[in-house]
Each structure stands twice: as structure tokens, then as C-alpha cells.
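To close the chapter, one final illustration. This time we ask the reader to focus less on the individual chains and more on the assembly as a whole: which components sit near each other, and how the overall shape emerges from the parts.
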Amino acid sequence: GAGVSQSPSNKVTEKGKDVELRCDPISGHTALYWYRQSLGQGLEFLIYFQGNSAPDKSGLPSDRFSAERTGGSVSTLTIQRTQQEDSAVYLCASSIQQGLNQPQHFGDGTRLSIL
Amino acid sequence: AQTVTQSQPEMSVQEAETVTLSCTYDTSESDYYLFWYKQPPSRQMILVIRQEAYKQQNATENRFSVNFQKAAKSFSLKISDSQLGDAAMYFCAYRRGGSQGNLIFGKGTKLSVKP
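The assembled structure is written out below.
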């Protein structure tokens, strides 16, 4: 079956603009994660959705960042009033809820560049 | 808070030789999981191998194996018979116990394979 799909693959925008990044998880995966990877760095956790539970937003760096997941499937990460430090690759991952130690499956990411 | 440290920013290995990538972590929890992910230039994170902390036996996946030292909080990855396709960034990651949760990543090791 299809893997995690992210769009757009690349996004260039001007400082101060809002951007929306989309993630379509693997069908049947109830857990969805957003991570940010800055140049030369590891992945930084942003937000986590699990079924109908309230999302874990503990990794969001500022109130300019928000995310939603509609219908328990597709998720959108929104960055308002973008800043140059928001430039990074944004990766989405999904996993099955049931069972222990289920691995997270990653998409190819969206490379965001703020001019 | 849990942390993951990869002390080798870059490593190099000759094709067909063996290389070991280091990873240490800090946690006060007794139940957790450890992972190695590979990230080629395509950006997609690919799961290489995983280890449950409660298992004493080291995980193996074909040419990939780990040396898990729980008391020392060390989780190194050994790649045997290195191939050109193994060249990539390698990330060590930690996840707390339970059915789900976000991953905490190290900063990665860039592995080069020389023909």
C-alpha cells in the first residue's frame, strides 16, 4: 500500500507569510507525528495526534505553529507569520496504535525555505 | 528529560568492511525502546533496527546489529559487509515505554562508504 504522503515537496515563501503543510498518513494508522529537521540537526518533535485524544502539542516552538487532523486522517501543519528560523524540513510520520513498539513510518518531508 | 547523543558527526568505511556507529542516551525510565533510522539524500527516514529495553538479547537485521548496554545507556549500531547503498545519515532515537509516543533523536552520523 501507499506510504506517508506529504505535500508540497518544497515550499519557498517570503518572511511574514503563512504556510500550510499537508500530511496523508498510511491508511489505518491512528497515530500521526510532526517533526522538524533543521540543517545539520536531528529531528525535533513538534506535535502528536493519537486517535480522538487531545493532541500532544508540547513540542510546538511558538504559538505561530498549529496543527489539526481532520477525520482522524489527513493532518495540516500551519505556520503563521513565518520567520527565517522556520526554514527546515518538516517530516510527518504515522504508526498503528495497537501493539507495543510499532515503528513510525515517515514521509519524504516538505522542505520549507523562508526568504 | 531524555536525551540522545551521537558523538561521531561523520564516519567513513571501506566497502565490505565493518563499521560501528555510537549512541548514548540518558533516561530515568526503565521501560523504553531504541531505534536506528537511516536517512539517504531522498530525505525519507527508513527504520534500520529496533530494540526493546527489557530484552537482553541484541537485535539483528541481516548485516545490521546492535550492541545494547543498558547499564551504560549505550546503543551502538554495527554494519557488516558495508555496501555503497549504506551511505546515508544515521540517527539513533529513543521512545518511552507504552504503545505510542514521540521519538527523541540524536543529531546523526553521516556515513560515507568508499569503493
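DSSP finds no helices and twelve strands in chain B. Chain B has a mean pLDDT of 94. With these observations in hand, you are ready for the problems at the end of the chapter.
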